[in-house]
UniProtKB/TrEMBL annotation:
InterPro entries: FAD/NAD-bd_sf, Prenylcys_lyase, Prenylcysteine_Oxase1. Residues 1-26 form the signal peptide. It comes from Rasamsonia emersonii (strain ATCC 16479 / CBS 393.64 / IMI 116815). The lineage of its organism: Eukaryota, Fungi, Dikarya, Ascomycota, Pezizomycotina. This is Prenylcysteine lyase. Its cofactor is FAD. It comes from the Eukaryota.
Amino acid sequence: MSPTNSFRAWLVHILLVFSTALLADADDQVPLGMASGTAPRRVAIVGAGAGGSSAAYYLRQYADYFRIPVNLTVFERNPYVGGRSTTVNVFDNASYPVELGASIFVEVNYNLMDAAKKFGLNLTGAGQSRPNEAEEMIGIWDGERFVYTQSESLSWWNIAKLLWRYGLAPIRTRNLMKDTVNRFVKLYQRPYFPFSSLSSVAVELGLNKATAATGAEFLEANGISAAFSREIIQASTRVNYGQNLALIHGLETMVCMATDGAVFVENGNWQIFAGMLNSSQANVNLNTAVTSIKRNSNGTFTVSHVHDNHSPEQSLFDDVVIAGPFQESGIAISPPLDHVPDTIPYVTLHVTLFSSPHRLSPRFFNLEDTEVPETVLTTLPQGLDLGPREDGVGPSGFWSISTLAKVQPPAEHEASDTPQEHYVYKIFSPERPTAEFLASVLGVDAPQGAGNLTIGDLPKQDISWFYEKTWHSYPYLYPRQTFEQISLASNLWYTSGIESFISTMETSSLMGMNVAGLMIENWLGRHVEWNRWTKTDSTEL
Ligand SMILES: Cc1cc2nc3c(=O)[nH]c(=O)nc-3n(C[C@H](O)[C@H](O)[C@H](O)COP(=O)(O)OP(=O)(O)OC[C@H]3O[C@@H](n4cnc5c(N)ncnc54)[C@H](O)[C@@H]3O)c2cc1C
Ligand SMILES: *[C@@H]1O[C@H](CO)[C@@H](O)[C@H](O)[C@H]1NC(C)=O
Ligand SMILES: *[C@@H]1O[C@H](CO)[C@@H](O)[C@H](O)[C@H]1NC(C)=O
Ligand SMILES: *[C@@H]1O[C@H](CO)[C@@H](O)[C@H](O)[C@H]1NC(C)=O
Ligand SMILES: *[C@@H]1O[C@H](CO)[C@@H](O)[C@H](O)[C@H]1NC(C)=O
Ligand SMILES: *[C@@H]1O[C@H](CO)[C@@H](O)[C@H](O)[C@H]1NC(C)=O
Ligand SMILES: *[C@@H]1O[C@H](CO)[C@@H](O)[C@H](O)[C@H]1NC(C)=O
């Protein structure tokens, strides 16, 4: 062989090793897969959020590798891809998109990180688009006073002030978080992947201890002080999940503290899921709701779907993935399932986005002259224990107020000669904010009868743009040890049970990938020695 040829052979070899090592072990013979000429497996995926897009994306990769012909169809009742990951534009200007739902993910979120890289999306560090004008970046407000403020916004760790104030608690918390994350990331690897029961794999990984206890119990059992838990950790469970430590379980509490490498995709995280769907070559049907799934006696499914206001259509599939909370899907399944996923309580979260020329009012926050931190998180005041109450917001009345960015308003909003940038704010609250509340947060006069008025009743000179959205954002994460079935019936799969374990874009993606793995094993009728394809070498934080 000439040197060039041997180099080429080597290159081909390396490329093959690279492409196949991602999926299977050397002992998994290059598969023959299905006989050529077999009709493609018809797969319906209901939902184009993180879970459904990931199911399609990984299923396409695995099926191609195993040479199984598949025809993927995604049904999404919204007019857009992304589900709870979606943006809206300030001033309706596409130059200023802001996240209305899921806003950040972190470096151990392998699926999201890998996909963003693969699709050439730009990542920005969380908080980097903030105005950065105030001395303090983060403040934790208890409804009366700031119990803690910090000038750096990106990390809770390595901050002298934190260690000075809370002693060993931050270090203990970080170690506990690292231990928890290192267990969690094993879900991406054999022998755990793909898992047919989340309840079992949680026990195998020792994560059931964290899910069985409330955050408060879990932290106390691990020697973390009540002051640090209430002032810092609870501020984080409240901004991320709208719940206190006496309710939310220990595992989700740890997720709230796993903030290393927090980023977002420039112009919208939903682009990851759009990229996944494009790459999956699925037929994507937007504005199309699945209304019923009939399990036929020959094992196929007749899926009824309605596009806009047209009359229902029916299509036949071999497999169906339900990739959104079942209780909100409106899908009737016949004959009935042996076990229907339980209805679980979801947080009702009001997200209020708006722009204003005004800064946050020091007076509202009982400050004299100092500026208000750009991100205001909240906690309960010392001595107030609301236990596991769902209406646990306490005296602050809101979960968080963040200053997201500064933007140039369109000409009609500018005060005559001096063009002034406006601030963009995001409020998370359990109730719709009143005009009175908003006016006092901005330090402007409230209009008459403001107790009953809302944001649209405030003058344009104070609120130049706004957008309100009520989400069922995530479950109340009560302590539990069992999680919904992943296989609801033969060839009928469900991704959203993972939300009671951890509710994030990445975990929905993981479950989409997991279901894809289970489907492949099911079709092949054997276990596959999946190799790890995520960068698990870097999991030691
Ligand atoms: C305000 C907010 C902030 C958040 N912050 C973060 C964050 O910072 N980081 C993070 O990782 N996570 C965050 N989350 C959580 C995250 O958004 C979700 O965990 C994740 O996006 C869920 O993805 P999913 O695909 O499982 O569900 P969804 O995104 O809800 O997708 C399900 C899809 O199914 C569709 N669907 C349902 N039924 C039908 C039907 N019958 N027919 C057709 N289509 C149907 C729905 O329209 C929806 O698009 C946040 C959520 C909210 C609301
Ligand atoms: C895939 O299925 C859709 C309808 O479910 C059908 O219109 C399309 O022709 C199929 N594509 C292939 C390649 O079989
Ligand atoms: C959108 O914002 C950009 C950046 O400030 C600006 O250049 C552009 O004119 C705006 N577009 C509209 C339609 O206002
Ligand atoms: C990423 O950022 C670069 C530099 O700002 C830009 O040229 C490029 O278009 C961006 N890519 C995407 C996908 O937004
Ligand atoms: C969609 O996927 C194809 C490959 O399947 C790729 O060539 C193309 O660039 C992708 N388009 C976008 C917009 O990502
Ligand atoms: C399975 O049953 C469905 C519904 O009765 C029918 O439309 C379909 O043709 C059947 N498929 C096979 C392979 O028998
Ligand atoms: C608010 O509106 C209700 C009816 O919509 C009315 O009965 C009530 O008096 C109003 N309260 C105030 C403070 O204006």
